[in-house]
Amino acid sequence: MTTKYLVYTALMTAIIAVLGFVPAIPLPVMPVPIVLQNIGIFLAAILLGRKYGTLSVIVLLLLVAAGLPLLSGGRGGIGVFAGPSAGFLFMYPVITYLIGLVRDLYFKKINFVVLLITTIVFGVLLLDITGTIIMGLITNLPITKSVSLSLLFMPADILKAIVASLIGNIMLNHSQFKQLLK
């Protein structure tokens, strides 16, 4: 790892952490709120790719596990990995890797449509369904109820996927940003 990519990884970790200070939107029917940090997770994958994007997310989760209150609502500590949002947290590195993998494969011909479809499939569908199933297991909800509750997250997460894909597409296709990544 070069110093340049170490700085990019740390910067992306900081961006995701700052997004955690934006207040969450609580949902009355479930213990997991809608958070803005997903945009940072999506952007880490889109801008840094599978290796460094995933590393930035893992660093964030390690900082959270160490007790820093970097998650939305000022949450932190090892306990959050056993709570209702555990499934979402454990899926963050997985979806970052998968979105980053597609980004790396299509890097030379990246466009908004590729980014959006990838982010919706992995960052919205996979994250929301898996996260709510694990939430249901932790809170003793039936799987069918958990999957139906995932539909509550999807409109906001699709909006977040659009925003992240737009930002990512603009930056990845900008000549000066491409120079930075070389």
TrEMBL record:
One of its GO terms (cellular component) is plasma membrane. Keywords: Cell membrane, Membrane, Transmembrane, Transmembrane helix, Transport. The chain crosses the membrane at residues 5-25, 31-48, 55-72, 78-100, 112-138, 150-172. It is found in: Cell membrane. Pfam families: BioY. GO terms for molecular function: biotin transmembrane transporter activity. InterPro entries: BioY (IPR003784). It is a multi-pass membrane protein. Belongs to the BioY family. This is Biotin transporter.
